[in-house]
Amino acid sequence: MSVDIGSEVERRARVHAALADPARLRIVDALSLGDVSPSDLQNELRIGSNLLAHHLRTLERAGLVTRRRSEADRRRTYLHLDQTGLAELLPSPEPRPAVPRVVFVCTANTARSQLAAALWSQASAVPATSAGTHPAEGIAPGAVAVARRRGLQLERVRPRALEGVLEADDFMITVCDNAHEELRTEQPTDLPRLHWSVADPVRGNTDADFDAAYDDLAARVAHLSPHLTAP
Hints:
Layout: H1 7-18, H2 22-31, H3 38-45, H4 49-61, E1 65-69, E2 77-81, E3 102-106, H5 112-123, E4 128-132, H6 141-150, E5 171-174, H7 177-183, E6 193-195, H8 201-204, H9 207-224
Parallel strand pairs: 3-4, 3-5, 5-6
Antiparallel strand pairs: 1-2
C-alpha cells in the first residue's frame, strides 16, 4: 500500500522542524498570548539580532509567525503567532496571578477596545472595561454595526480617558499600536500588560474592516480568557 504524503502532512512536518530548537520554542512562548516587536523580543530573550532574525525567518517560513507594521511608528513591526492548527503544539502559558479586572485600551476608545471588553465579558468571569489614551466623543458607528451583526451586547458608553479608569491592580491589554507605543514609555513597566496589534477598522471604515477586527479580537479573547481568573 502506498502512502501519499500530502500537503497537510508536509505542513505539519515544517512546523515540527521549526519548533525543534530551544530558542524558537522560547519565541513561541513569548508570542503565545500577545504581539511583540523584534527589538523587545531580542531584549527579552537576550540573543543577538542576527540569530533572532534567523529564527524568525524559520518560523515565518513554517507559517507560525507573521509580521504587521505598526500603525504608529511605521519603522516598527509586531510579531504575531498564528495559532491556526497549532493548538496542541502550543506550550501552556505560565501561571498568571488572579486579576481583579482587565482594561482594554486603544487611542480613541471608539471601536477595538470597546469590542474587546464586550467580547471578554461574554467569555470570562473576570470583569472588563475599556478606555482610551485620547478618547473621542462617541463610539464608532461601525463598531455598533458589527456588534449588532454578530449578536454582541455592546454597551453604548461614552469613551473614557485611561487615567480616569486604570487602577494599580488592573491587567491592561492595548489593542492599538499607537496606544501601546505611547504607554510603553509612560506607564510603570511592572504593570501587568499585553499588547494585541489589531488593525484599526475605523481607517478603512468598511463592514469588512470591522468584521476583520472583530474576528481578530474574538480569537485572542478566546485564547487568553481561560488563563486569567478573578481573585
